[in-house]
Specification:
Number of domains: 2
Radius of gyration: 15 Å
CATH topology of the largest domain: Dna Ligase, domain 1
Largest sheet: 5 strands, antiparallel
Shape: globular
Structural class: alpha+beta
Number of strands: 10
CATH architecture of the largest domain: 2-Layer Sandwich
Order of helices and strands: EHEEEEEEEEHE
């Protein structure tokens, strides 16, 4: 919303996996890990005609309240125009991938 071209985020495996999913789903342009010693992830944001590709991102599971769903109850974000990122036993994936593989897990966030 601040119209920044790129964002620096402290590095972790979870953040990198989420950024990779967002890149595959065309919500961001590129993900890079800064040179050793800095431990930062550089995320290049995507804009279409001056409007951000990510209109809203909402964290669902929080440290005080974890939200788990089975494979039958996976959420549909904006009638499947958005995605939910799910942490499954096979790693992070979108709600659409988890539905195909019939996996449930913890809902990390919703993006649209």
């Amino acid at each position: 919303m601040a119209k920044k071209e790129e964002v620096l985020v402290p590095s972790s495996k979870l953040k990198l996996a989420i950024a990779d999913i967002l890149k595959k789903e065309n919500y961001i342009e590129d993900v890079e890990i800064t040179p050793k010693g800095h431990g930062m992830i550089l995320i290049k944001l995507k804009y279409a005609e001056g409007k951000p590709a990510i209109k809203n991102i909402r964290r669902v599971s929080k440290p005080g309240r974890r939200v788990y769903v089975g494979s039958n109850n996976l959420p549909r974000v904006l009638n499947d125009f958005g995605i939910a990122i799910i942490s499954t036993s096979r790693g992070l994936m979108t709600n659409k991938q988890a539905r195909k593989e019939k996996l449930g897990g913890e809902i990390i966030c919703e993006v649209y």
